[in-house]
Design goal:
Shape: elongated
Oligomer: single chain
Strand content: 15-25%
Number of domains: 2
Number of strands: 7
Helix content: 10-25%
Largest sheet: 5 strands, antiparallel
């Protein structure tokens, strides 16, 4: 006769009787806030991918200034560079494919380095502008000292009286600086003046009687006419 020794149940466990099915595993409880956070993360990732895709698809090659460009500057190939940017449709720009059409044209205003170029920056009018002429005023090193002229600055071209004249005051003509050619011995300044004043000013420049005055309280054309009239009365 054989006897069987009953098995000892392990601590913490109930003995399972023969033929009884095992108990199902415990069911995990999902926390609602964890599920919500996961769904939000998925949504944010999808939105970020969509925004990135749209931005990349909207990027385009446009032209910017490769350096500081002055007003009336004649555009050369090295003055421009192409950049890829994402722009709103309301922002004016020039596609990089139009670079060839800009070479040789003048700027209507100054453009800082890195700034976008637009059609408004390109001068459509003939140069010099209608009704004006360019007079080149040569300045000695002493005359150019202290002057900080840039294209677009408003100045006065002052003409001293000829040495043969007696009791005659200098006259002046308002003008706008178009270009400055500086050198070691002085400077040559291209000044836009009224066409009717160009011949007399050129004669004064050739005779060494012309200089440039730069100030903040600039006279009007009427003031210049009055000054010329007064000089005529004094002769």
């Amino acid at each position: 006769m054989t006897t069987s020794t009953p098995k000892q149940a392990l601590p913490g466990r109930r003995p399972v009787s023969a033929g009884q099915p095992p108990a199902p595993p415990p069911r995990l409880r999902r926390r609602p806030w964890v599920v919500g956070a996961g769904l939000a993360a998925v949504g944010l990732g999808a939105a970020a991918g969509l925004v990135t895709g749209v931005a990349l698809s909207d990027s385009r090659e446009v032209l910017v200034a490769a350096g500081d460009l002055d007003k009336y500057h004649v555009i050369a190939a090295e003055d421009l560079r192409s950049v890829s940017v994402s722009l709103d449709s309301s922002v004016a720009s020039i596609p990089s494919t139009d670079v060839a059409s800009l070479i040789g044209k003048r700027l209507a205003d100054g453009v800082p380095e890195g700034s976008l170029l637009s059609s408004a920056d390109i001068a459509d009018d003939a140069y010099p502008p209608e009704g004006t002429s360019v007079v080149r005023v040569t300045l000695t090193a002493q005359q150019a000292q202290g002057l900080t002229l840039e294209p677009g600055d408003l100045v006065r071209v002052v003409v001293s009286a000829p040495s043969t004249a007696t009791e005659s005051e200098p006259t002046f003509t308002p003008g706008e600086v178009a270009a400055v050619h500086a050198g070691d011995t002085g400077a040559v300044v291209d000044v836009l003046v009224a066409r009717g004043e160009a011949v007399a000013l050129s004669d004064a420049v050739m005779g060494g009687r012309a200089s440039i005055v730069q100030d903040f309280d600039l006279p009007t054309a009427d003031d210049a006419d009055d000054s010329t009239a007064d000089d005529g009365d004094g002769e």
